[in-house]
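Researcher: I'd like a structural prediction for the single chain below. Treat it as a standalone chain; there are no partners to consider.
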Amino acid sequence: MWGILRRYPKALLWSVLLHVALLVLMLSSVDWLIRNERLGAFENMIEAQMAATPDIERRIEALRASAPPPDEPPAEPPPEPPKTEPPKTQPQGPTPQQQAEIAAEEAARREAERQAELEAQRQAELARQAELERQAELERRRAEEEARRRAEEQARREAEDEIRRQVAEEAARRAAEEERRRAEAEQRRREAAEAQRREREARERREAEELARREAEEQARREAEEQARREQEARRQAELEAQRRAQEQARREAEQEAEREAQARRRAAEEARLEAELERQLQAELEEQRRLEMQERERREAEEQRLADERAMRRALETADGERRALDAAEQQRQAAMRAQVASRWVPAIQSRIRQFWLRPSGAGIGRETVVNLRLEPGGFVVPDSVRVIESSGNAAFDQSVVVAIYKASPLPVPDGAELDMFRDFNFVFKP
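Model: Treating it as a single chain, here is the predicted structure.
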């Protein structure tokens, strides 16, 4: 609203004046004294009252003049003041003149009543006519008010349409003006920027030229000063060179001595660390060697005990039945042949599987081999903590790498059924 007032003050003023004029016309057209009453209602009855009009007075005078003159009464003495006591004598009857006057007054009264009745009828007719005229005037005023209201509404709509049109035109004009101003401002800005750029470039060229000139002068001055300084510095350097050489020689000697001492300390520390590391490795290898030797000794003792038990059993069997020995020997040969055949088919596969997971340790020479004992479950899974080194390669790291590779290669390729029995607990020779 305030934006419209600032942009179009005249249009808003005309709109306000138009509404005020319409309000004044509406208030002035209303008859605030006329009640909405129906013609012929009880409230519209007229109360008539006879009044002595000049016409009635004239008629009364004419009647009095045409009446016979009454006899002259005798002269009466002037009236006495009334007494407080009522008269004792009876009053006398009216005279003919009084009767004539009374008749005239009665006729005049009747004429006046007739005239009053006619006047009342005339007043009632006038009131009816006035009511009809008032109703007609009210209808006319209503029609005029409706026509005026419609005209005002039409005028208001036309004014509002005109205002809207003017507002739209003004908005379009202002938008075009704003666009033109923006274009002009942009053009001026570009021109100003171009002028500033040209001025800046000219200023920069002048500054560059001035700077080059100053730099040339400064360079010449610096060169002269530098020449003098170099000559003075050469003399000072010649004096300081001897001192520097002496100090440098002393510093180098001190640094060399400190470096020799530091190297001696580092060598001693490194030798001590290497010796400790070698000692630790040797100790670990000795521990591992002792563990392996103990395992080998236990295995050999168990193997010797098993062989002794077998020899004793064999001797007992040989003494018991010679034919059975021959059969057992044949069965053993057959089983040995079968085991050799099964081993020739599955051991290379096991060897290849383990080689896929084996990593050669550093320091392990070529041509080493290790014999390990391992136990397998159905499916070729290695029983945890069942791999034991039976014959060491002479290098504990090599033996341990074989054990680790066996565990990583689990499950190993093995046969099913009865052939699996020979791989449940067997010795394996690993050659890389």
